[in-house]
């Protein structure tokens, strides 16, 4: 029995050390040195203070800011611990009520809702944490933000274009605008 048990325990100890300690430690070290920003959460700083992450949306509801996709997380919006969609189907009356409420909030903030509202301004993403909106959703909000800030629409449009990230490798995904980065750029432009 000892002749069988001893090699099994040695193999177990070696594999546990390699896969449970050495490999995770090596990957953590590699991530922290080669991809430091990503390994630390892609944090964004403003005035030497962390204001959020480029990977997780934040709630903005003031008229002078661009608004992101609604969050479906609960009990609070953009809660990474509660990541997940609402699972409401397109015919669900609760989804229709939520969309109508979001359109009314856009209208109350001074957005011209006579034009078709981009879908990503009134529906949550699958994770409920999406930090980005489509360029169309950003363009839809330009007039409201420009008016609320006393800026020209051309200036705000330029900031939107600068904040727009194209397709990955030129072919994957769709162009997006990170809402937090755009709002930080707006604040910086107002300080100049």
Give a description of the structure.
The protein has helices at residues 2-34, 36-39, 93-108, 135-149, 153-163, 179-191, and strands spanning 43-46, 49-53, 132-133, 164-165, 176-178. The protein has 192 residues and is mainly alpha-helical. The protein has two domains: 1-40; 42-191, no CATH class. The protein has a three-stranded antiparallel β-sheet with strand order 3-5-4. It has a two-stranded antiparallel ribbon with strand order 1-2. Strand 1 (43-46) and strand 2 (49-53) form a beta hairpin. Helix 4 runs antiparallel to helix 5 (153-163) and helix 5 packs across helix 6 (179-191).
First-last Cα distance: 79 Å
Give the strand line-up of the largest sheet.
Answer: 3-5-4
Q: Please state the overall shape, judged from the principal axes of the Cα atoms.
A: elongated
Name the assembly state. Answer: single chain
Q: Count every beta strand, where a strand is a DSSP E run of 2 or more residues.
A: 5
Structural class: mainly alpha
How much beta, percentage-wise? 5-15%
Helix content: 40-55%
């Amino acid at each position: 029995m000892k002749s069988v048990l001893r090699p099994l325990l040695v193999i177990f100890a070696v594999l546990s050390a390699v896969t449970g300690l050495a490999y995770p430690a090596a990957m953590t070290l590699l991530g922290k040195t080669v991809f430091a920003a990503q390994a630390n959460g892609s944090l964004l700083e403003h005035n030497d203070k962390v204001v959020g992450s480029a990977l997780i949306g934040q709630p903005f509801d003031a008229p002078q800011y661009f608004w992101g996709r609604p969050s479906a997380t609960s009990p609070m919006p953009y809660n990474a611990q509660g990541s997940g969609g609402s699972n409401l189907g397109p015919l669900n009356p609760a989804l229709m009520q939520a969309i109508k409420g979001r359109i009314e909030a856009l209208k109350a903030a001074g957005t011209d809702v006579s034009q078709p509202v981009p879908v990503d301004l009134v529906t949550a993403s699958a994770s409920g944490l999406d930090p980005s909106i489509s360029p169309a959703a950003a363009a839809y909000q330009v007039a409201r933000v420009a008016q609320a800030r006393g800026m020209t629409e051309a200036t705000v449009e330029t900031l939107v274009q600068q904040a727009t990230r194209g397709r990955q490798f030129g072919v994957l995904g769709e162009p997006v605008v990170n809402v937090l980065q755009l709002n930080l750029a707006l604040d910086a432009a107002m300080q100049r």
